[in-house]
């Protein structure tokens, strides 16, 4: 079954010459029997046992196990060989202290994957005379009892071979003899190989004695029938072939049970006992010992019987030569149960509690720091905003529309810089409906502004002034439109008996907040008399005179009051503020109020169309977004022999950057902003001298036909149209009975007013086409020095704000650049923007106010939608008091996100090093357990399992503690930030938990893998030498 051929094993010490521990050893071992290997220290006897037992690999030669050569063994095969066929008994017992006797013995079976093994373990313990010791701990056993446990552990898996290395070395003489008695009994059914330095024991017990010296076999003898020893032949048998036992060793006749079973297992074997020579037969059957002895005196050392076929503890049968893995070739792959791995792994944690506590503390801190930084590395603006708004208790949220653009900066004609930015714009009715469909009922608000500003305010002229220290103000911040959807929503909030469907184009509802402000400030009726406002119904039917900052006023009739009032906490916060801080608190509270609908006037859907020209905001639209070339010297425009205008900016059509100018009127009605060679578009200001001549001629004609009054009306009309075409706005004047101007109000021209002004110019051009006042469209461009730069035909003109703000001339691209090159350009910085956004003609609303979602999921959905850029570059934002602070945090984290990530990585590496150090120390502490497990058949994977279990326990403890710390720190930081700026920036959510868990697992794996890999890759004998 076991044979070694030409074994060579060389040890290479760090210093000195290599040592040949085995030098060409060849031996063939019998199937059963007790073989002693003797020799002095350093003779190679233990090395031979280690190589034969698969604990070490030879440098030369081979081991043959059941016909299969070790040359075909993988590392897994050697593990499987030890787990299946070999049992080991060591001098120092080497049983696991944390396990009971029963658990130590059953471990060998569980490594073979056998679960139900309690009965088998108890049977084996009874055979080694340890019945009743199952629950005892090794620390309570004597040396002899511990060695019996080791023998039971080796025997329980029914190995074909038992290797015993100095099994009596740590025992007294009597106990040692008892152990050898037991091994000798076992040798009748198994091969028992004993390494010993005790020749006396060898002579008494051995069936074969092999002596080594300097790594070579110097003697190989087998026991003769008469008890003497003779040289063994090549088969490892004595000349007479008689297996003999020393006198007094064979068990007495009354020893039933284990001895009888061993003897029964050796049926047909020649034995010499104290009573004579005979043949062993199964107990109670077979021929008598004397007769059997007479028939077998010349037979070689026989093969002993194997366990019964089908026994779950039977060793594998014959093996074929194969390179397959251990599980496929008959060897049993070890499977260390996870509970055992955890117990062994946790065992070392109790050994050095201070080191463990220090490691967990530092790793917990590192994990917690990583967790904190992960909240910033994986910062979720939507989650942060949602948490902030919910914590702040906002009742409504204000949405504003924006568009993304690229701002291009030029110095002269050279593009010098570009960057992404966003600009505010308004909502169209279609966009409002899309928001309602996505996020629920809300109210659209407008303030008649047409540009990117949305902070317009309106006054109530017939109201007094609230106290400067009051929370209330009569100032209005916009008009909330009660369309069908909004009216249905606000119906339940009415504090008066009002029919919202009956609101007219000059009717309005005030909020409870505005009503309280009017109560405090006072209100006058049309006659200037004070209006008593004691209850909400008192204001119904009363008139409010609304004024705009830019001029104009309208009168509205109040039809009801809506229940929109500031929370009680606002007044409490103001009252609780110290006198020195009251002004700052008041300003903060008023700012928070401005984001809601508290100061809005609720009007019908018809209100906008009826009054959009009546109120002039303080801000007007700034739609100029056209690239032009700034000329170094002015370009003069000459028509009919005289200079009619000039410009210092020219551009080509189509424009190379930015939007195509919208406010161009072509004489031929073309809609495509593209020019042919010789065509130009000039600014309305360049045509004004000729247009004004036509207007004067028309005024004279009107005076002649209709009188001075009609002529004056025509003059005012032309003045108004000229202002609209030149600046996009006009003034409305108020005169006294003497005709003296007493006031003026600036108005932004409506689209239809601008179109009417353009059409009137065309009417004049047509009327005076064949007169001396006709518009001359043939012009010559000259430089300041008088050099002619070309003759061109005017085909259109720019008007409105574009005309007033950008007196630019447009021409064909092929003719534009030569003029720029001829005159030169100024090194002035200018900028335009590029965007896919085109402002819809029906944009009117500057905000959409909706009830704040009260669930985290709903708030998260809204905040996630904010900032999502659409195909036309538009996106909405949520405007709140915390918006600026949230944006600052977003920008800060976006800028330093990578820094936080690397800090987190450093923390993770630090944790890894801490755990690496602890596991390395734990491996050093557990060398004994590793050696024991490897010897009884555990694989490298089982060693990994032990330390991964230990590492996982530590990492799990660190992770749980770190999560608790992160929750606590985040809560504290958020409370601090909320108190200071109203923002909860640290959202320690599921993503952070999972990332921390992943880092903990990765740290555990990486910190364990390297040190355990080094330990697991060691040959079993190297681990055993550490015992």
TrEMBL record:
<feature type="transmembrane region" description="Helical">
    <location>
        <begin position="356"/>
        <end position="379"/>
    </location>
</feature>
<dbReference type="InterPro" id="IPR017911">
    <property type="entry name" value="MacB-like_ATP-bd"/>
</dbReference>
<keyword id="KW-0813">Transport</keyword>
<keyword id="KW-0812">Transmembrane</keyword>
<dbReference type="InterPro" id="IPR003439">
    <property type="entry name" value="ABC_transporter-like_ATP-bd"/>
</dbReference>
<dbReference type="Pfam" id="PF00005">
    <property type="entry name" value="ABC_tran"/>
</dbReference>
<feature type="transmembrane region" description="Helical">
    <location>
        <begin position="946"/>
        <end position="979"/>
    </location>
</feature>
<keyword id="KW-0472">Membrane</keyword>
<feature type="transmembrane region" description="Helical">
    <location>
        <begin position="899"/>
        <end position="925"/>
    </location>
</feature>
<dbReference type="InterPro" id="IPR017871">
    <property type="entry name" value="ABC_transporter-like_CS"/>
</dbReference>
<comment type="similarity">
    <text>Belongs to the ABC transporter superfamily. Macrolide exporter (TC 3.A.1.122) family.</text>
</comment>
<keyword id="KW-1003">Cell membrane</keyword>
<dbReference type="InterPro" id="IPR003593">
    <property type="entry name" value="AAA+_ATPase"/>
</dbReference>
<dbReference type="InterPro" id="IPR015854">
    <property type="entry name" value="ABC_transpr_LolD-like"/>
</dbReference>
<dbReference type="GO" id="GO:0005886">
    <property type="term" value="C:plasma membrane"/>
</dbReference>
<feature type="domain" description="ABC transporter">
    <location>
        <begin position="2"/>
        <end position="239"/>
    </location>
</feature>
<dbReference type="GO" id="GO:0005524">
    <property type="term" value="F:ATP binding"/>
</dbReference>
<dbReference type="GO" id="GO:0022857">
    <property type="term" value="F:transmembrane transporter activity"/>
</dbReference>
<keyword id="KW-0067">ATP-binding</keyword>
<dbReference type="GO" id="GO:0016887">
    <property type="term" value="F:ATP hydrolysis activity"/>
</dbReference>
<feature type="transmembrane region" description="Helical">
    <location>
        <begin position="991"/>
        <end position="1010"/>
    </location>
</feature>
<dbReference type="InterPro" id="IPR027417">
    <property type="entry name" value="P-loop_NTPase"/>
</dbReference>
<keyword id="KW-1133">Transmembrane helix</keyword>
<dbReference type="InterPro" id="IPR003838">
    <property type="entry name" value="ABC3_permease_C"/>
</dbReference>
<protein>
    <submittedName>
        <fullName>ATP-binding cassette domain-containing protein</fullName>
    </submittedName>
</protein>
<dbReference type="Pfam" id="PF02687">
    <property type="entry name" value="FtsX"/>
</dbReference>
<feature type="region of interest" description="Disordered">
    <location>
        <begin position="275"/>
        <end position="309"/>
    </location>
</feature>
<keyword id="KW-0547">Nucleotide-binding</keyword>
